[in-house]
Amino acid sequence: PYVLRYWEQEFPMVRPTKSKSGQRVYARRDVETLHLIEHLLHVERFSIKGARQKLVERRKRQKEEAKAIEAGLE
Fold first, then answer.
1. How far apart are the C-alpha atoms of 15 and 72, rounded to whole Å?
2. In the chain, what is the greatest distance between 2 CA atoms, to the nearest angstrom?
3. Residue 58, class by beta-carbon neighbours within 10 Å (0-12 exposed, 13-18 middle, 19+ buried)?
4. For residues 18 and 71, what is the distance between their CA atoms, to the nearest angstrom?
5. Predicted confidence pLDDT, tens digits, the chain (74 residues)
6. Burial code of 6-44, b = ≥16 C-beta within 10 A, e = fewer?
7. Cβ atoms < 10 Å from Cβ of 53
8. Beta carbons of 8 and 16 less than 8 angstroms apart
9. Cα(18)–Cα(30) distance, rounded to whole angstroms?
């Protein structure tokens, strides 16, 4: 649990909601992001800063691809 709390502080894109009882509830996207963070840190050996930048670049690329697909459908 302490690793998740730390990653929540270091990676602003991971933001679980809280249940009425105060427990964290992770969305599927959060869980997928956490798996990617784990991979970047432990397998690819990125620093926290490097992993954060990689995630930001990935999100930006995904948004650009989504816009391109939308433009193609219009």
1. 32
2. 46
3. middle
4. 36
5. 999 999 999 999 999 999 999 999 999 999 999 999 999 999 999 999 999 999 999 999 999 999 888 888 76
6. ebbeebeebeeeeeeeeeeebeeebeebbeebeebbeee
7. 13
8. yes
9. 13
